[in-house]
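Bench notes, bay 3.
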Amino acid sequence: ARRRIQGRRMVSLTIRSMARSSRRRAARMTASPDGVSHKVQVVDRVVRDPREIRTDRLLLRFWRDSDREPFAAMNADSRVMEHLPAVLSREESDSLADRLEASFVRERLGLWALELPGVAPFIGYVGLAVARFEAPFTPCVEVGWRLARPFWGSGYATEAARESVRDGFERLVLNEIVAFTVPSNERSIRVMERLGMQRSPQDDFEHPGLAPGHRLSHHVLYRLDRPTWLRLRDSEAPSRSRL
């Protein structure tokens, strides 16, 4: 238990240290005589903790009280929770929402409420989280998502997760982001692969939060390190500029 607590503290301290480092780099950037307005935009994105993140179609934002009811309905859907141990009661769902909200204050990262503007005020969550268990690859930061069933199959999870990953590598200056699930969760695995994450079979693990032999205990781990993400970002930039 002591090791798990120390691991979580290490991640939180590392995030704070990286934020201070990015502020120092930002100060140097603003002193540059050329391209001042562009560089200030980059500083804003790197240093400040955002209250929301927008993509072409989606809004990743802080949680609202009105999110509780659709969140509970999503967590009570057996199809949505198929690859998790059990559906959640309303009380369990509200408790989870409390923890998700608190993580933004505690660790400067978290799982955002996901909105589809003009269509639905709440469709699920997407974002970053510090893993709360002990494994060979922890302490670590993971990217995760959960969407209500009517919004599956439209690329929303990939779109929002890609922006969460960008936020982790740019604002928080993380060295690596991971994701994990059970082998049968093919939808989530496809999202991980679209993000550029890679799996090594030797990283597979038994989730310590589940009893040995549980049908969901075996997990696959996908990783994305900072140099790989930078290469992917730079390779995608020319195609985006032509749109």
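Next record in the batch:
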Amino acid sequence: MKQIAKVKLWDVLTQAVADMTKHGFDSPDRLQGWISKLRDAATQDAGTQAQAVQRLRLSLGVLYTRWVSNGAILKYHPGIERTTLKVIEPRLRAVLDRRILASADLIKLNREQAIEKTLSRFSGWATSIPSGGSKVVDRLDVKSHVAKAMRTANYETRRLEIDQGHKMLSNISAVIAEQTGARGREFLAALVAGYEAAVRASAARVPWYKEQLYSTGIWGVF
């Protein structure tokens, strides 16, 4: 079976801007035709939701293996033995599963918003061009503005991965504290330890983490 070539958003956008610059907004059909083509190209550029969720699953899985399966998180829970961690691991694994499920919904929402914002920007610009076209359009500037949301989509997904890692390790620390009888100050210390572990893990994996991201959750608290 012949494989269908992937259509790049930038290429379609270049054609769309050139056409609308030449003809202007002379009919809704012309605009809707380009909106349809841009949506298809943007969807391909964004990749499938399954691919994004799989990347996040792998990212959180690496964190879980290091901090739970290999016992690194015990550094923040003095007095807790590795054997105890093994006993409560099913509850900790459930935290990982919940983070993945919550992330899937956020990935879908962010992806859809990026595509719709791209189409909205193109439509807003295209309908401002008078019928008959314009000779004063800065095409590169228009394309950069329209495509901005899609350019930042991957960054937003990466930021989501980091944030969900924060929440997972913080919640895991809370579960460890709860399951081992910690109360009051010890329980709060466990929550802080979870974020400390998450921040250190993120800073080690992402060079620009400390300069560009907050050290606490950025997509909501829990």
